[in-house]
Amino acid sequence: MTIFVTGHKNPDTDSISSAIVYAYLKQQLGMDAQAIRLGEVQDETAFALSTFGFEAPQFVEKAGEAELILVDHNEFQQSIDGIEDARILEVVDHHRVANFETADPLYMRVEPVGCTATILLKLFKENNVEIPANIAGLMLSAIISDSLLFKSPTCTEQDIAAAKELETIAGVSAQEYGLDMLKAGADLSKKTLEE
Amino acid sequence: MTIFVTGHKNPDTDSISSAIVYAYLKQQLGMDAQAIRLGEVQDETAFALSTFGFEAPQFVEKAGEAELILVDHNEFQQSIDGIEDARILEVVDHHRVANFETADPLYMRVEPVGCTATILLKLFKENNVEIPANIAGLMLSAIISDSLLFKSPTCTEQDIAAAKELETIAGVSAQEYGLDMLKAGADLSKKTLEE
Ligand SMILES: [Mn+2]
Ligand SMILES: [Mn+2]
Ligand SMILES: [Mn+2]
Ligand SMILES: [Mn+2]
């Protein structure tokens, strides 16, 4: 059975990237994993996806009887509709834990860092899986997005160190690429009044 | 401020051992950590403590304003009284997650294995901290206890592999020592009618 890897509703760049990246890692480890998304891809994220050659994950509305891996969130109200009835196999996240429960033991990796991708970098290393350049690019995009190019108060030493490593693998400059990506997200010409 | 490391109420050998062991690891990493316990030490656990030369952790009844690390549990009703008002810095556990929440991001390491000590072994390695023989002995005791000497259906390949490693470091035979420990816990002469 396919196991779906999903970020939160109103997905940001970390939620989309980490779903793709962790599904990739799980595939390398032999799991039939597939990234999904719970909402529209934002302009910033679309820029990251197209720079590194990825399609947006499939949009899914309801959990059904799926087996799930949650990334970048754990609270049920931020997750896929119907999650109460789904089986949650894993969580990889960097937020507080609340409004979350499982019936069975699971793998849960929550760390007080600035971005899910920073934790995913550890998981690649722990599992001895090589990180391709484009996957590194997505992870770097997530860290730049969550840390606002390392300026957010939630950004930790670990996020900065992870970004340095990923920069080298991805073959881009975090500062240059990061500014372009954040600009793509801030492009006011496309925004509606509501935003 | 001292950070208290605690297992669950009605502590078993994993809860007592993992509190002592994780407090030790945290001390090696520079944290002012201290193991505590939330109830009486059982005979089986007393046998493990005395074999490897440890005192029982201090008994504590209420959380107060403490900073806490939870091992071998996460559900609040199994934890220290007043935990709702405490600050939970970390959780290392192998049970389902439920009835648990924090106000802030934390470190949470939950894995679907048979014993907390199996996860702690990974944390020693990830942090490059050497495991002294007596600490290995406590970890081995926890795995033997939770897995009923590798016979419980909750026992995983990882628990068996961890026990093999710890056996060598501790310098005891899991089978021989394990039987003695389980026998110490099953000593009916000391049991009251209630038990
Ligand atoms: Mn997010
Ligand atoms: Mn995030
Ligand atoms: Mn226990
Ligand atoms: Mn246990």
Automatic annotation (TrEMBL), chains A, B:
Mn(2+) 1 binds at residues 8, 12, 72. Its cofactor is Mn(2+). Mn(2+) 2 binds at residues 14, 72, 94, 146. It comes from the Bacteria. One of its GO terms (cellular component) is cytoplasm. GO terms for molecular function: inorganic diphosphate phosphatase activity; manganese ion binding. It is found in: Cytoplasm. Keywords: Cytoplasm, Hydrolase, Manganese, Metal-binding. Binds 2 manganese ions per subunit. Belongs to the PPase class C family. This is Probable manganese-dependent inorganic pyrophosphatase. It comes from Paenisporosarcina cavernae. The gene is ppaC.
